[in-house]
Amino acid sequence: MAASGKTSALLQTLFWGIFSAMLYFVLYYFEEPILNWSKAGPLAFIVPVCIAFLFSFVHGAFTTYFWDLLGVKAKSIKK
Length: 79
Fold this sequence. Notes:
Layout: H1 3-29, H2 31-37, H3 46-70
Helix pairs in contact: 1-3
């Protein structure tokens, strides 16, 4: 990987890692309002589902860039 590629991978890893940490902080800090929104009405189940999808996407992106930065790749199996 070229130097600029490593720099880009590092920046992407830092961005997604910080974004992931911020999401965890916001979830912890605003626990009560989020719980109240999720109990508010007949379609309130959408709130925790959307939060779960957001966490899954952000943490998955961070994990992908993290392992790429370390050089860990999945082994491909050729048949």
